From TrEMBL:
Protein name, UniProt field: 2-aminomuconic semialdehyde dehydrogenase
Gene Ontology CC: cytoplasm
Lineage: Eukaryota, Metazoa, Chordata, Craniata, Vertebrata
Top enzyme category: oxidoreductase
Localization in the cell: Cytoplasm
GO BP annotations listed: retinoic acid metabolic process
PROSITE patterns recorded: ALDEHYDE_DEHYDR_CYS (PS00070), ALDEHYDE_DEHYDR_GLU (PS00687)
């Protein structure tokens, strides 16, 4: 109805420094109420074409600026986002369903830090030089930005993951066309409003909104976009790989996980239990790094399970804008149904659901009755072959199983197609080193979770991705290297 559409937030694409309306729009839902609250451009080839053209035109000037000039602009942008932190956090929570607390303390501060971090790191790279005195040669490497970078990001950590790509791409002197998830586009649009004030020249950052199959594929297939940085599901990555193959594009793929936590009987449970609750249920379990298989050594299995379930029951589910709430809404109705279906499958296979979905009742505030909520759910006695132990669920569901030996648990932890992040809990330093080395996982946290030094590589093995991102890794991905030889 007119009345309803009048109140809606309407986003526009950001191309060549200007907001431009689109000929058609998609509905975007507030996951905590189930209402449409925003309209997102349904961009396609035409819009992507305009954005790529603007990015190409901006490239010569932007790429010839000094790292220090670019660094200053990134720092300014970081300050502007930080200045509006609360507005960004409110928008992220409303758009994504995540709790306001998480958006305030994780998403937006990290988006700010992404710009600051790359503003700093870009000043400190050095290239290589070798000498071959016997033939009178010196060799050195030189690095230059690649061109127009295509950046595609998912819905779970919207501004956090988008800026993790934009910041290194433009710090290195590339210009970009970004395509955020159609389900969570609002904070990217808000960021566009700050670009001019930060001093980002027109055309350096362009954002087209829309679906993966239309806007995303148009970007992936565009011949003038030589590089795609993608974060999202493994299935989409396969499609992007196929579509970009005819152009031999440079790809960075950050994909899904089925992350194990391994708890040995000498673990400090007073640390392990609260952290493993967070690693299982933070952001509704919608983080690629979330734990979803907990292997507990037999001797402490029942104690762990009892304490873990008791604590999981204390996690408060409800209105994401309530600062006392721990678990907000899942991203969509479809996703909620998918996550629930895993719990049903586990039950049908004979596993025991110890708390949460189908076991405890969920009382929601009046305004949130139609939101996509689910209780933190713990499942025990699941077989390793079960889809619940093999597939990425990406919701507040975690499986707890027992193990006996170190060799056995390593084999079982590695027995999935993914290899993103693992946690190991033990007070035996030797064991922690041995196990960490043998796990097929791009990241291994021991006695902690989610503590990141952005200097170091981030990314997954196996079906969890190709390539790494971080200070040096992103610099290498977003620049083209050349080896030059000079003979006297
Ligand atoms: P998704 O793959 O469905 O979508 C990700 C992005 O790709 C969206 O912007 C989408 O519109 C776009 N897209 C979809 N189809 C496309 C196509 N054919 N061509 C081009 N673009 C296309 O993923 P999602 O559901 O938004 O995000 C959840 C997934 O992301 C989970 O699997 C999660 O593990 C993964 N993830 C990984 C990391 C990591 O760093 N490894 C971080 C966060 C999320």
């Amino acid at each position: 109805t007119m009345a309803r559409s009048e109140g809606l937030l309407v986003l526009e694409n950001f191309i060549a420094g200007k907001f431009v309306p689109c000929s058609s729009y998609l509905d975007s839902y507030n996951p905590s109420t189930g209402d449409v609250y925003c309209r997102v451009p349904d961009s396609g080839k035409e819009e992507v074409e305009a954005a790529v053209k603007a990015a190409k035109a901006a490239f010569p000037i932007w790429s010839s600026k000094s790292p220090l000039e670019r660094s200053r602009i990134l720092n300014k942008l970081a300050d502007l986002i930080e200045h509006d932190l609360e507005a960004f956090a409110q928008a992220e929570s409303k758009d994504q369903g995540k709790t306001i607390t998480f958006a305030r303390t994780v998403d937006i501060p990290r988006a700010v830090y992404n710009f600051r971090f790359f503003a700093s790191s870009i000043l400190h790279h050095t290239t290589e030089c070798t000498e071959m005195a016997s033939v009178g040669c010196v060799h050195y490497t030189s690095r230059a930005p690649v061109g127009v970078a295509g950046l595609i990001s998912p819905w779970n950590l919207p501004l956090y993951l988008l800026t993790w790509k934009i910041a290194p791409a433009i710090a290195c002197g590339n210009t970009v066309v970004a395509k955020p998830s159609e389900m969570t586009s609002v904070t990217a649009w808000m960021m566009c409003k700050l670009l001019e004030k930060a001093g980002v020249p027109h055309g350096v950052v362009n954002v087209v909104f829309g679906t993966g199959t239309k806007a995303g594929e148009a970007l992936v297939c565009h011949p003038d976009v030589p590089l795609i940085s993608f974060t999202g599901s493994t299935l989409t990555a396969q499609r992007i790989t196929e579509k970009s193959a005819p152009h031999c594009k440079r790809l960075s793929l950050e994909l899904g996980g089925k992350n194990p936590a391994i708890v040995f009987d000498d673990a400090d449970l007073s640390q392990c239990i609260p952290t493993t609750l967070r690693s299982s249920f933070a952001n509704q379990g919608e983080i690629c790094l979330c734990t979803s298989r907990i292997f507990v050594q037999r001797g402490i299995y029942s104690e762990f399970l009892k304490r873990f379930v008791a604590e999981a029951k204390k996690w408060k589910v409800g209105n994401p804008s309530d600062p006392t709430v721990d678990v907000g809404a899942l991203i969509s109705k479809e996703h909620l149904e998918k996550v629930r279906s895993y719990v049903k499958k586990a039950q049908a296979e004979g596993a025991r659901v110890l708390c949460g979905e189908g076991v405890d009742s969920l009382a929601l505030p009046t305004g949130n009755q139609k939101g996509y909520f689910m209780l933190p759910t713990v499942i025990a006695e699941v077989k390793d072959e079960s889809c619940c132990m093999q597939e990425e669920i990406f919701g507040p569901v975690t499986c707890v199983v027992a193990f006996d030996t170190e060799d056995e648990v390593i084999e079982r932890a590695n027995g999935v197609k993914y290899g993103l992040a693992a946690t190991v809990w033990s007070s035996n330093v030797g064991r922690v080193h041995r196990v960490a080395r043998r796990l097929q996982s791009g990241l291994v946290w021991t006695n902690c979770w989610l503590i990141r030094d952005l200097n170091l590589p981030f990314g997954g093995m196996k079906a969890s991705g190709i390539g790494r991102e971080g200070a040096k890794d992103s610099y290498e991905f977003f620049t083209e290297v050349k080896t030059i030889t000079i003979k006297h």
